TrEMBL record, chain A:
Protein name: SDR family oxidoreductase
Entry similarity comment: Belongs to the short-chain dehydrogenases/reductases (SDR) family.
CDD domains listed in its UniProt record: SDR_c (cd05233)
Entry-linked InterPro entries: NAD(P)-bd_dom_sf, SDR_fam
Automatic annotation (TrEMBL), chain B:
Stretch forming the signal peptide: none
Family annotation (InterPro entries): KR_dom, NAD(P)-bd_dom_sf, Sc_DH/Rdtase_CS, SDR, SDR_fam
The protein's name in its UniProt record: 3-oxoacyl-ACP reductase FabG
Family classification: Belongs to the short-chain dehydrogenases/reductases (SDR) family.
Gene that encodes the chain: fabG_2
Residue ranges the record marks as coiled coil: none
Length: 253, 250
C-alpha cells in the first residue's frame, strides 16, 4: 500500500503536548501515520493543538493534570475506545518550578517535582500497561533531560528527578521486555517557552557553546522519539539518547 | 537532485553489508569498501539489482596509501562522500596472558588507525560541503569482555574518537556518533562460538535468554540505527554512543 507509513494503525499517547516538544512529537507521529491522544492542563490550548495536528481525525485532546490517575485512566480508555489502542506512550510532561541551589530548595517544591516528573510518568506506564500493553505489547519513550545526565547547577533537583526517570527507564526495560520497549530521550536546551529563561535575549551567546552552534528545535526531538518508538529500533531498549548538539561533551550544561 | 555519497568500510559482509544496503535504500550512492573489491561485488550487485548505485572498492583501511587511493576512486566515480561509516573490524580474541603483540596491533590498526585514516581523508569533503555524518561502530565489548582486551580497548577508543570528532567538526555541520551493538548474528560472532566450542544456535539461544527483548540482534537492527543517525532527523544528535543491544547497558 503506497500510503502505508511506519505508524499507520497505531495510536500514541503524548502527555504535555499542547505546545513545545510534546506538540512536535505528536506532529511527527501524525506525519508518520499515527493517531494521537494529547494531554495538557488547559483545554483551550489543547483545542488549538488538535487543529494544528489536522483535527479530530488525527488527534484527540484530553485536559487534565498529568499526575491524576483518573485522568490517566480516562486518556488510555479513550485512546482504546476512539482510536483502537494504546500502542505508544510518550511521557513528556515535566515541571521545573524552582531555580537555585539545592541547599535552599523548598522541600515541598522538591516533592512536587518528583511527583510530576517521576511518579506520574511511572503511573502513566502502569495505566497503559494494565489496559493495553501487557496484552498487546508497545513502546514507551520518556522525555528526560541532559540535566539528568550531568550536573546542571541551578536546576539540580530537576536534574535529579530526570536521573530517576533515566533509571526507571532501565528498570522498566528489563521488567517489561520482550513485549514492551522503554527508552528515553534527553534534550539539551530546545527553543520552547518551557526553556525560555535559559536562552531568551542571548540565543547566539548560548548557541556558541554548542558544538553544532545552534540550540535545539522541537522537531529535533520529535524525529528521535519517533525513531525509538518505531520498529526500526526493535532491538533498542533501556537506552537514553542524548539530543544536545554535542553540548554535554563540552563540560557544561 | 543531488545524490549523497556514503562510504561504508568492512561492507562485504555482516553488519557493513546490511548498512550499505540500507543506505542505498535510503537513496544514497554507496561505496562498498573492504579488503578486496572482489568480495564486495555481491553486495554491489544486490544494490544495483534493487535499483541503487554502488561501487566496490578494495582497500586496507589501516594503510594510508590504500585509503587515499580508495577515496580518490570514490570521489571520482560517485562524488564526494557526505556519510562515512567506520565499520571495518576484526577479532583476534585471547586471554591477556596468551595474546600476542601481533593480535593486539592488528585489532588496533583496523579499528583505530583505520577509522582515523578514513575520517581524516573524508572530513575535508564534509567541511567543504558544510554537511556530514560520521558513524563509527563501537560495541558493548567497550564495557569489558573476557578474552577481548584488544577489541574492547579499540571499541572504547572509538567512543572517545567519536566524541572528539563531534567537538572538532560540529561547527562545520558535521555530526559524529557511534553505534554500539550487542550480540549480532554474523560470521564474526559465529566464529566466537566456534572458538569456545559451542554450536552457534545454542550460543544464540543462551545469549537471548540474557537479553530483555529475548532475541539476539541482526545486522539490520544496526543498519536501521546507522540510517537514522545519517538522516536529517538526527541533525541535533552528535557525540553520542547509541547502544543497540536489546536491553540496557552499563
Amino acid at each position: 500500500m503506497a500510503d502505508q507509513k511506519r505508524f499507520t494503525g497505531r495510536t500514541a499517547i503524548v502527555t504535555g503536548a499542547s505546545r513545545g516538544i510534546g506538540l512536535a512529537i505528536a506532529g511527527q507521529l501524525v506525519a508518520d501515520g499515527a493517531r494521537v491522544v494529547i494531554t495538557a492542563r488547559r483545554g483551550d490550548a489543547l483545542k488549538d493543538a488538535v487543529e494544528q495536528l489536522g483535527g479530530s481525525e488525527h488527534a484527540i485532546g484530553v485536559a487534565g493534570h498529568a499526575a491524576d490517575t483518573d485522568h490517566q485512566a480516562e486518556v488510555v480508555e479513550r485512546a482504546i475506545a476512539e482510536f483502537g489502542g494504546a500502542h505508544l506512550l510518550v511521557n513528556n510532561t515535566g515541571i521545573n518550578p524552582v531555580h537555585g541551589p539545592l541547599v535552599g530548595i523548598d522541600l515541598d517544591a522538591a516533592r512536587k517535582i518528583v511527583e510530576v516528573n517521576c511518579i506520574a510518568a511511572l503511573s502513566w506506564i502502569q495505566q497503559v500497561h494494565a489496559r493495553w500493553m501487557k496484552d498487546n505489547g508497545g513502546s514507551v519513550v520518556n522525555i528526560v533531560s541532559v540535566a539528568g545526565v550531568k550536573p546542571a547547577p541551578g536546576i539540580g533537583f530537576y536534574g535529579a528527578s530526570k536521573a530517576m526517570l533515566v533509571h526507571l527507564t532501565q528498570e522498566l526495560a528489563v521488567e517489561l521486555g520482550p513485549g514492551i520497549r522503554v527508552n528515553a530521550v534527553a534534550p539539551a536546551v530546545v527553543k520552547t517557552r518551557f526553556a525560555a529563561a535559559l536562552f531568551e535575549g542571548r540565543e547566539d551567546e548560548v548557541a556558541a557553546s554548542y558544538p553544532l552552534r545552534r540550540l535545539g528545535e522541537p522537531a529535533d526531538i520529535g524525529s528521535v522519539v519517533a525513531f525509538l518508538l518505531s520498529g526500526e529500533a526493535a532491538w533498542i531498549t533501556g537506552q537514553s539518547v542524548v539530543v544536545d548538539g554535542g553540548l554535554t561533551l563540552t563540560g557544561g550544561i | 537532485m543531488t545524490i549523497r555519497t556514503a562510504v561504508v568500510t568492512g561492507a562485504a559482509r555482516g553488519i557493513g553489508a546490511a548498512v550499505a544496503r540500507r543506505l542505498s535504500a535510503d537513496g544514497l550512492a554507496v561505496a562498498v569498501l573492504d579488503l578486496s573489491a572482489e568480495a564486495c561485488k555481491p553486495v554491489v550487485d544486490e544494490i544495483e539489482a534493487a535499483g541503487g548505485t554502488a561501487l566496490a572498492v578494495g582497500a586496507d583501511v589501516s594503510s594510508e596509501s590504500d585509503v587515499a587511493r580508495a577515496l580518490d576512486e570514490v570521489t571520482g566515480t560517485l562524488g564526494a562522500p557526505a556519510v562515512l561509516v567506520n565499520n571495518a573490524g576484526i577479532l583476534r580474541d585471547n586471554l591477556l596472558f596468551k595474546m600476542s603483540v601481533d593480535d593486539w596491533d592488528q585489532v588496533m590498526n583496523v579499528h583505530l588507525r583505520g577509522s582515523f585514516l578514513m575520517t581524516r581523508a573524508v572530513q575535508q569533503h564534509m567541511v567543504a560541503a558544510g554537511w556530514g555524518r560520521i558513524v563509527s561502530l563501537s560495541s558493548t565489548s567497550a564495557l569489558g569482555n573476557r578474552g577481548q582486551v584488544n577489541y574492547s580497548a579499540a571499541k572504547a577508543g572509538l567512543q572517545g574518537f567519536t566524541k572528539t570528532l563531534a567537538l572538532e567538526l560540529g561547527k562545520f555541520g558535521i555530526t559524529a556518533n557511534a553505534v554500539a551493538p550487542g550480540f549480532i548474528e554474523t560470521e564474526m560472532t559465529a566464529a566466537t562460538a566456534a572458538r569456545i566450542g559451542v554450536p552457534f544456535e545454542d550460543f544464540k539461544a543462551a545469549t537471548a535468554e540474557q537479553i530483555p527483548v529475548r532475541r539476539t540482534g541482526k545486522p539490520e537492527d544496526i543498519a536501521h540505527t546507522v540510517s537514522f543517525l545519517a538522516s536529517e532527523g538526527a541533525g541535533f544528535v552528535s557525540g553520542q554512543v547509541i547502544y543497540v543491544a536489546g536491553g540496557p547497558t552499563d
